[in-house]
Amino acid sequence: MRHLYSWLLGGGLLLGLSACPMTGPEPLLQPQYRPLLMARAQLEQAVAALPPQALHNTGKIYLRGSYVLVNERYEGVHIIDNHDPAHPKPVAFVRIPGNVDLAMKGNLLYADSGPDLLTFDVSDPRQARLLHRVRDAVPELPMPEFGPLEAEYQPQNRPADAVVVGWRKL
Description:
Elements: H1 2-19, E1 33-39, H2 40-46, E2 48-50, E3 58-64, E4 67-72, E5 76-81, E6 89-95, E7 102-105, E8 108-113, E9 116-121, E10 129-134, E11 162-169
Antiparallel strand pairs: 1-11, 2-6, 3-4, 4-5, 5-6, 7-8, 8-9, 9-10
């Protein structure tokens, strides 16, 4: 009797397995990104002190005296007057395409702009003023996650004057 149950169980398993196609595990889908490219001349001309802008995709925060500087990923830096912490007031936005990082020393704001390093005088936070640009001071902005990059967006296939100022997830 025990052998009969074993045969029935084994036969049922074989029938069940034969009904299911034998495939391997589903491949993990890697997110794909495309670089946001900007011509170098356009990148350099786009840097500007502007009126306050809405915060959308914020990154790093830097506190300087009673001012807070907030990075807007790939866009620039918000400057917020925090004299009254209960009522912070946005006072300016420094448009810096390709910006992801910032640092300060005294009245100088250092920020990346794609591969460039920019120095601003922020002694008057409402009127940040670009003092200096060091071209190609930092590596190209890396892709946010590891994954394949389409051939047309490989560095060797981009226009010669193109600079990566961000990444867009497909």
